[in-house]
Amino acid sequence: MLLILASKSPRRAQILEQLGVEFCVEPPRCDENITGIPMEDIPKELAKRKALDVSARFPNFVLGSDTLVFCENMVLNKPESKEEAFEMLRKLRNKTHKVLSGVALCKNNEVLFAGSCQTEVRFRNYSDLEILDYISTMEYADKAGAYGAQGKGARFIESINGCFYNVVGLPVALTLKALGKIKQERL
Predict the structure, then answer these.
(1) Burial of 146 (0-12, 13-18, 19+ CB in 10 A)
(2) Three-state SS at 101
(3) What is the CATH number of domain 3-186?
(4) H-helix or E-strand containing 74?
(5) pLDDT tens figures, 10-31
(6) Which secondary structure element, helix H or strand E, spans residue 52, and what is its range?
(7) DSSP state of 138
(8) pTM recorded for the entire structure
(9) What number is the average pLDDT over the span 130-141?
């Protein structure tokens, strides 16, 4: 296999499949705690860290990615409970937030490409009852910001300015740019 996806995200794998990319999955085992850098740089740094971790173990090209949701200069990670998901969705209600993703391509423990993508997402003014209804689906679990734009979480979205697939977890244009480095390296 030419490419390894350094992620256990089924959404990232699905996007690569949609693009017709052949790959296998190898989850990274690196530390994802980062301090001392601007929030906007965290996704790219984590993407590099994930790709380098897997690259150290395999001779293949490795694609790493990370996505974070920011609202009012605060990171909204994956909720750990229904209550936390409820509070996140209340915080996002009737506001615009940013989704930032980093993408990195590595081989032989060397970063060949690293970049980031930003998308603005505007949520509509929905009710607490709508939040509770959504939470009951359990779709919020394992999703930064407690929603899935590609699923039932679409009910909250009023508009998206930027790459939709970035909100899902893997920005397509940036990923294709990274994968273009494979062709350059093989020439």
Answers:
(1) buried
(2) strand
(3) 3.90.950.10
(4) strand 74-76
(5) 999 999 999 999 999 999 998 8
(6) helix 42-55
(7) T
(8) 0.92
(9) 96
16-22 contacts, C-beta under 8 A, 24 or more apart = 16/63, 16/170, 16/175, 19/172, 19/175, 19/176, 21/179
Tokens of 13: 């794998």
Catalytic positions: 66
Q: Which of 163, 143, 178 is nearest to 23 (CA)?
A: 178
| Residue found under tokens 């350094």 | 6
Amino acid code (one letter) for 75: V
**H/E segment holding residue 109:** none
Q: Which residue has the tokens 């509509």?
A: 124
Amino acid code (one letter) for 10: P
Tokens of 92: 């996002």
Pairing state between β 96-107 and 110-123: antiparallel
